[in-house]
Amino acid sequence: MRFLLVPLLVIATSASIRAQHDDHRHHPAPSAYAADTARAIKALAPDEVAGLLEGRGMGLARAAELNGYPGPLHVLELADDLGLTEAQREAVEAIRAAMLEEARALGAQVVEIERHLDALFAEGRATDEAIDRMTAHLGQVQGRLRAAHLRAHVVTREALTAEQVARYGRLRGYTAD
Known about the structure:
This protein has 177 residues and is mostly helical. Helix content is 72%, strand content 0%. Helix 2 packs across helix 6.
């Protein structure tokens, strides 16, 4: 009898595990994207839309920032610590204003293209040709947006002395004292 009990327990346990596995397979966990279905533009979170429309950097110039090319916003925030002259402060303010104007315009284009791309799918009109056309345009505008932010770092660095650039790196925690 004892020899019969062990195989029956194994069969019962494996059947229970199989049933749980089958149940899980038929009822998967909700997608991480489930909450995004209510968004106006599915591919962009509200804070991303706001960042694009406001001209925020959102990491687009990280290659410059982390390689010794200070950003205009942070330079202005650190103006006193960097010892900016009035002329430097005015120059960096002008750089930032020009960058924001360009970035806001390009950010608005990104948002509009994403809105059209979303509508393409929502309306069931997605085709290979339409996807290729829209994503190529989106990529071009996103590239121009990133370039606007990167260029602002280049001209900001040109407005500073080498000592100010080094101090900026230390103040931001990128280099040791």
